[in-house]
Amino acid sequence: MSSIIKVSSPSNIALIKYMGKKNHELNVPSNSSLSWTIDHLRTYVEVKALSNKETDRWAPLESQQDISLSESSVARYLNFWKKLKSKLGVEGNFLVSSGNNFPFGCGLASSASSFSALTLAAHELSCKQGQKPLNEHQLALLSAQGSGSSCRSLLEGWVKWSEQGVQQVSFPFDNLIHKVIVVESGEKKISSSQAHKMISSSLLNVQRQARANQRLEDLCQVLQKGDWKRAYEICWSEFWDMHALFETSEPSFGYMTALTMKALNSLRLFWQNNGDGPLITMDAGPNVHMLFREDQNKLCDDILANCLEGFSVL
Protein backbone atom coordinates (compact mmCIF):
# COMPACT_ATOMS: atom_id res chain seq x y z
CA MET A 1 0.00 0.00 0.00
CA SER A 2 1.91 3.05 -1.23
CA SER A 3 1.51 6.62 -0.03
CA ILE A 4 -0.58 8.82 -2.29
CA ILE A 5 0.08 12.02 -0.35
CA LYS A 6 3.16 13.19 1.55
CA VAL A 7 3.21 16.68 3.09
CA SER A 8 4.77 18.57 5.97
CA SER A 9 3.99 21.82 7.76
CA PRO A 10 5.93 23.93 10.29
CA SER A 11 5.11 24.98 13.81
CA ASN A 12 4.84 28.65 14.77
CA ILE A 13 5.32 30.68 17.92
CA ALA A 14 3.15 33.66 18.78
CA LEU A 15 4.73 36.81 20.21
CA ILE A 16 1.27 38.27 20.80
CA LYS A 17 -0.77 35.34 22.02
CA TYR A 18 -3.93 33.63 20.84
CA MET A 19 -5.51 32.81 24.18
CA GLY A 20 -9.25 33.13 24.51
CA LYS A 21 -11.98 32.58 21.95
CA LYS A 22 -15.10 34.45 20.91
CA ASN A 23 -16.39 31.26 19.32
CA HIS A 24 -15.04 27.92 20.59
CA GLU A 25 -16.74 25.93 17.83
CA LEU A 26 -15.00 27.83 15.00
CA ASN A 27 -11.90 28.91 16.99
CA VAL A 28 -12.57 32.62 16.45
CA PRO A 29 -9.91 34.45 18.51
CA SER A 30 -10.75 37.02 21.18
CA ASN A 31 -7.80 39.13 20.07
CA SER A 32 -5.45 39.43 17.12
CA SER A 33 -2.09 37.65 17.30
CA LEU A 34 1.35 37.87 15.72
CA SER A 35 3.62 34.87 15.19
CA TRP A 36 6.87 33.72 13.65
CA THR A 37 6.78 30.52 11.57
CA ILE A 38 9.30 27.95 12.84
CA ASP A 39 10.42 26.21 9.68
CA HIS A 40 12.73 23.66 11.34
CA LEU A 41 10.06 22.18 13.66
CA ARG A 42 7.66 20.26 11.44
CA THR A 43 4.87 17.69 11.34
CA TYR A 44 4.90 15.16 8.51
CA VAL A 45 1.74 13.51 7.21
CA GLU A 46 1.35 10.59 4.82
CA VAL A 47 -2.02 9.46 3.46
CA LYS A 48 -2.71 6.00 2.00
CA ALA A 49 -5.94 4.78 0.42
CA LEU A 50 -7.96 2.06 2.15
CA SER A 51 -10.62 -0.20 0.73
CA ASN A 52 -14.23 0.92 0.80
CA LYS A 53 -14.90 -1.63 3.55
CA GLU A 54 -12.44 0.06 5.88
CA THR A 55 -12.84 3.32 7.81
CA ASP A 56 -10.43 6.22 8.23
CA ARG A 57 -7.77 5.53 10.84
CA TRP A 58 -4.63 7.13 12.26
CA ALA A 59 -1.17 5.67 12.85
CA PRO A 60 2.16 7.13 14.00
CA LEU A 61 4.58 7.86 11.17
CA GLU A 62 7.53 5.54 11.68
CA SER A 63 10.07 7.81 9.97
CA GLN A 64 9.61 10.53 12.62
CA GLN A 65 9.72 10.76 16.42
CA ASP A 66 7.41 8.24 18.04
CA ILE A 67 4.24 9.91 19.27
CA SER A 68 1.52 8.25 21.28
CA LEU A 69 -1.79 10.05 20.91
CA SER A 70 -4.56 9.56 23.44
CA GLU A 71 -7.89 8.22 22.21
CA SER A 72 -9.40 11.69 22.47
CA SER A 73 -6.53 13.22 20.45
CA VAL A 74 -6.89 10.58 17.73
CA ALA A 75 -10.65 11.17 17.66
CA ARG A 76 -10.13 14.94 17.35
CA TYR A 77 -7.64 14.48 14.51
CA LEU A 78 -9.80 12.02 12.57
CA ASN A 79 -12.97 14.04 13.15
CA PHE A 80 -11.27 17.04 11.57
CA TRP A 81 -9.99 14.83 8.75
CA LYS A 82 -13.59 13.81 8.02
CA LYS A 83 -14.65 17.46 8.15
CA LEU A 84 -11.89 18.36 5.69
CA LYS A 85 -12.93 15.56 3.34
CA SER A 86 -16.52 16.80 3.41
CA LYS A 87 -15.62 20.46 2.82
CA LEU A 88 -13.08 19.68 0.09
CA GLY A 89 -15.10 17.02 -1.70
CA VAL A 90 -12.68 14.15 -1.01
CA GLU A 91 -14.02 10.66 -1.60
CA GLY A 92 -12.71 7.44 -0.07
CA ASN A 93 -11.29 6.18 3.21
CA PHE A 94 -7.67 6.55 4.24
CA LEU A 95 -4.89 5.67 6.64
CA VAL A 96 -3.51 8.96 7.94
CA SER A 97 -0.02 8.68 9.44
CA SER A 98 1.64 11.61 11.18
CA GLY A 99 4.77 12.37 13.15
CA ASN A 100 6.94 15.27 14.28
CA ASN A 101 10.64 15.98 14.25
CA PHE A 102 10.14 17.58 17.70
CA PRO A 103 8.37 16.63 20.96
CA PHE A 104 4.59 16.49 20.90
CA GLY A 105 2.08 18.18 23.23
CA CYS A 106 4.52 20.07 25.47
CA GLY A 107 4.04 23.68 24.43
CA LEU A 108 5.92 23.68 21.11
CA ALA A 109 2.75 24.28 19.05
CA SER A 110 2.56 20.74 17.71
CA SER A 111 -1.19 21.10 17.16
CA ALA A 112 -0.50 24.03 14.83
CA SER A 113 1.85 22.01 12.64
CA SER A 114 -0.27 18.84 12.92
CA PHE A 115 -3.55 20.38 11.83
CA SER A 116 -2.01 22.54 9.13
CA ALA A 117 -0.24 19.47 7.70
CA LEU A 118 -3.53 17.54 7.80
CA THR A 119 -5.25 20.40 5.96
CA LEU A 120 -2.53 20.44 3.30
CA ALA A 121 -2.86 16.67 2.84
CA ALA A 122 -6.63 16.86 2.42
CA HIS A 123 -6.30 19.76 -0.01
CA GLU A 124 -3.71 17.96 -2.15
CA LEU A 125 -5.93 14.88 -2.21
CA SER A 126 -8.91 17.03 -3.17
CA CYS A 127 -6.98 18.53 -6.08
CA LYS A 128 -5.90 15.05 -7.23
CA GLN A 129 -9.56 14.10 -7.31
CA GLY A 130 -10.34 17.05 -9.57
CA GLN A 131 -11.64 19.62 -7.08
CA LYS A 132 -10.87 23.34 -7.42
CA PRO A 133 -7.77 24.39 -5.44
CA LEU A 134 -7.97 26.90 -2.59
CA ASN A 135 -5.50 29.74 -2.06
CA GLU A 136 -3.31 29.83 1.04
CA HIS A 137 -5.60 32.24 2.89
CA GLN A 138 -8.65 30.04 2.29
CA LEU A 139 -6.63 27.04 3.43
CA ALA A 140 -5.48 28.90 6.54
CA LEU A 141 -9.02 29.76 7.63
CA LEU A 142 -10.12 26.18 6.98
CA SER A 143 -7.24 24.82 9.04
CA ALA A 144 -8.12 27.18 11.90
CA GLN A 145 -11.36 25.27 12.39
CA GLY A 146 -9.28 22.28 13.53
CA SER A 147 -6.69 24.19 15.58
CA GLY A 148 -6.84 27.97 15.69
CA SER A 149 -3.10 28.63 15.65
CA SER A 150 -2.58 26.21 12.74
CA CYS A 151 -3.75 28.91 10.32
CA ARG A 152 -0.54 30.83 10.98
CA SER A 153 1.62 27.83 10.02
CA LEU A 154 0.43 27.99 6.42
CA LEU A 155 2.25 31.28 5.80
CA GLU A 156 5.94 32.04 6.18
CA GLY A 157 7.77 34.45 8.47
CA TRP A 158 5.74 37.00 10.43
CA VAL A 159 2.02 36.21 10.36
CA LYS A 160 -0.84 38.25 11.76
CA TRP A 161 -4.17 36.57 12.52
CA SER A 162 -7.35 38.48 13.31
CA GLU A 163 -11.09 38.10 12.79
CA GLN A 164 -10.52 39.54 9.32
CA GLY A 165 -8.21 36.68 8.35
CA VAL A 166 -4.55 35.70 8.13
CA GLN A 167 -1.86 37.80 6.50
CA GLN A 168 1.89 37.75 6.10
CA VAL A 169 3.57 40.91 7.37
CA SER A 170 7.10 42.23 7.05
CA PHE A 171 9.50 44.02 9.40
CA PRO A 172 13.19 44.97 9.18
CA PHE A 173 13.87 41.69 11.06
CA ASP A 174 12.78 39.06 8.55
CA ASN A 175 15.43 36.34 8.87
CA LEU A 176 15.18 35.25 12.48
CA ILE A 177 16.95 32.32 14.13
CA HIS A 178 14.67 30.26 16.38
CA LYS A 179 15.83 28.21 19.36
CA VAL A 180 13.70 26.60 22.05
CA ILE A 181 14.83 25.55 25.52
CA VAL A 182 13.15 22.20 26.13
CA VAL A 183 12.54 22.15 29.88
CA GLU A 184 10.10 19.24 29.62
CA SER A 185 9.26 17.13 26.57
CA GLY A 186 6.40 15.09 28.05
CA GLU A 187 2.79 15.77 27.10
CA LYS A 188 1.29 18.48 29.29
CA LYS A 189 -1.64 17.64 31.58
CA ILE A 190 -3.80 20.59 30.52
CA SER A 191 -4.03 21.10 26.76
CA SER A 192 -4.16 24.51 25.11
CA SER A 193 -7.79 23.81 24.14
CA GLN A 194 -8.65 23.28 27.82
CA ALA A 195 -6.70 26.41 28.79
CA HIS A 196 -8.75 28.54 26.38
CA LYS A 197 -11.87 27.58 28.31
CA MET A 198 -10.45 27.70 31.82
CA ILE A 199 -9.13 31.27 31.62
CA SER A 200 -12.68 32.63 31.41
CA SER A 201 -12.81 32.32 35.20
CA SER A 202 -9.85 34.68 35.71
CA LEU A 203 -10.60 38.29 36.61
CA LEU A 204 -7.58 39.24 34.51
CA ASN A 205 -9.38 37.91 31.45
CA VAL A 206 -11.90 40.79 31.52
CA GLN A 207 -9.46 43.24 29.92
CA ARG A 208 -7.26 40.65 28.21
CA GLN A 209 -8.48 41.47 24.68
CA ALA A 210 -7.68 45.18 25.07
CA ARG A 211 -4.22 44.50 26.52
CA ALA A 212 -3.29 42.04 23.78
CA ASN A 213 -4.51 44.24 20.95
CA GLN A 214 -2.63 47.23 22.36
CA ARG A 215 0.56 45.16 22.66
CA LEU A 216 0.12 44.00 19.07
CA GLU A 217 -0.11 47.59 17.86
CA ASP A 218 2.91 48.57 19.97
CA LEU A 219 4.99 45.57 18.89
CA CYS A 220 4.33 46.15 15.20
CA GLN A 221 5.37 49.80 15.58
CA VAL A 222 8.64 49.08 17.40
CA LEU A 223 9.58 46.24 15.04
CA GLN A 224 8.98 48.54 12.09
CA LYS A 225 11.23 51.15 13.72
CA GLY A 226 13.91 48.53 14.40
CA ASP A 227 13.70 48.90 18.20
CA TRP A 228 14.69 45.35 19.18
CA LYS A 229 15.05 46.06 22.92
CA ARG A 230 11.55 47.48 23.17
CA ALA A 231 10.24 44.49 21.19
CA TYR A 232 11.86 42.19 23.77
CA GLU A 233 10.15 44.08 26.60
CA ILE A 234 6.71 43.83 24.95
CA CYS A 235 7.10 40.12 24.22
CA TRP A 236 8.25 39.48 27.79
CA SER A 237 5.19 41.26 29.22
CA GLU A 238 2.86 39.45 26.83
CA PHE A 239 3.80 35.88 27.69
CA TRP A 240 3.71 36.70 31.42
CA ASP A 241 0.24 38.17 30.89
CA MET A 242 -0.94 34.88 29.38
CA HIS A 243 0.60 32.75 32.12
CA ALA A 244 -0.94 35.05 34.75
CA LEU A 245 -4.34 34.13 33.28
CA PHE A 246 -3.58 30.47 33.99
CA GLU A 247 -2.47 31.11 37.55
CA THR A 248 -5.48 33.31 38.39
CA SER A 249 -8.12 31.00 36.92
CA GLU A 250 -10.44 29.05 39.22
CA PRO A 251 -9.15 26.45 39.68
CA SER A 252 -5.67 27.79 39.02
CA PHE A 253 -3.23 25.88 36.86
CA GLY A 254 0.21 26.53 35.44
CA TYR A 255 2.99 25.28 33.21
CA MET A 256 6.14 26.96 34.52
CA THR A 257 8.61 24.87 36.52
CA ALA A 258 11.69 25.69 38.58
CA LEU A 259 13.80 24.96 35.49
CA THR A 260 11.62 27.30 33.42
CA MET A 261 12.30 30.09 35.90
CA LYS A 262 16.03 29.29 35.92
CA ALA A 263 16.16 29.64 32.13
CA LEU A 264 14.11 32.84 32.12
CA ASN A 265 16.21 34.43 34.85
CA SER A 266 19.43 33.56 32.99
CA LEU A 267 18.12 35.16 29.80
CA ARG A 268 16.89 38.28 31.58
CA LEU A 269 20.27 38.66 33.31
CA PHE A 270 22.00 38.35 29.93
CA TRP A 271 19.85 41.19 28.57
CA GLN A 272 20.60 43.33 31.64
CA ASN A 273 24.35 42.77 31.37
CA ASN A 274 24.66 43.10 27.58
CA GLY A 275 21.84 45.42 26.50
CA ASP A 276 20.98 42.91 23.78
CA GLY A 277 19.63 39.41 23.45
CA PRO A 278 16.85 37.36 21.88
CA LEU A 279 13.14 37.98 21.89
CA ILE A 280 11.78 35.60 24.54
CA THR A 281 8.36 34.02 24.75
CA MET A 282 6.50 30.92 25.92
CA ASP A 283 3.52 29.01 24.66
CA ALA A 284 1.04 27.22 26.95
CA GLY A 285 3.75 24.93 28.28
CA PRO A 286 7.01 24.95 30.29
CA ASN A 287 9.42 25.51 27.41
CA VAL A 288 11.09 28.79 26.47
CA HIS A 289 11.34 30.11 22.90
CA MET A 290 14.07 32.47 21.72
CA LEU A 291 14.19 34.45 18.48
CA PHE A 292 17.53 35.93 17.40
CA ARG A 293 18.27 38.45 14.66
CA GLU A 294 20.39 37.12 11.81
CA ASP A 295 23.32 39.28 13.00
CA GLN A 296 23.20 37.65 16.46
CA ASN A 297 24.84 34.33 15.61
CA LYS A 298 27.80 34.94 17.94
CA LEU A 299 25.49 36.19 20.70
CA CYS A 300 23.31 33.09 20.24
CA ASP A 301 26.35 30.81 20.57
CA ASP A 302 27.42 32.72 23.71
CA ILE A 303 24.01 32.23 25.34
CA LEU A 304 23.87 28.53 24.46
CA ALA A 305 27.37 27.92 25.78
CA ASN A 306 27.38 30.06 28.92
CA CYS A 307 23.79 30.70 30.06
CA LEU A 308 21.97 27.45 29.34
CA GLU A 309 24.37 24.77 30.49
CA GLY A 310 22.50 21.53 31.16
CA PHE A 311 19.45 22.52 29.11
CA SER A 312 18.38 20.80 25.92
CA VAL A 313 17.97 23.28 23.08
CA LEU A 314 16.35 22.65 19.69
Which key features would you list for this structure?
Alpha-Beta Plaits; 8 helices; 38% helix; 314 residues; four-stranded antiparallel beta sheet; six-stranded mixed beta sheet; Ribosomal Protein S5, domain 2; alpha+beta
Task: Describe the fold and architecture.
The chain has 314 residues and is an alpha+beta fold. It has two domains: 5-169, Ribosomal Protein S5, domain 2 (2-Layer Sandwich), CATH 3.30.230; 177-313, 2-Layer Sandwich (Alpha-Beta Plaits). The chain has helices at 71-88, 110-128, 136-144, 192-198, 208-225, 228-247, 258-274, 297-306, and strands at residues 5-16, 21-23, 28-29, 33-49, 57-60, 94-100, 158-162, 165-169, 177-182, 279-282, 288-292, 312-313. The strands form three sheets. Strands 1, 4, 5, 6, 7 and 8 form a six-stranded mixed beta sheet that branches. A four-stranded antiparallel beta sheet has the order 10-11-9-12. A hairpin with a 5-residue loop joins β10 (279-282) and β11. α1 (71-88) packs parallel to α2 and α5 (208-225) packs antiparallel against α6. The longest helix is centred in the C-terminal third of the chain and has 20 residues, at 228-247. The two termini are 34 Å apart. The mean pLDDT is 92.
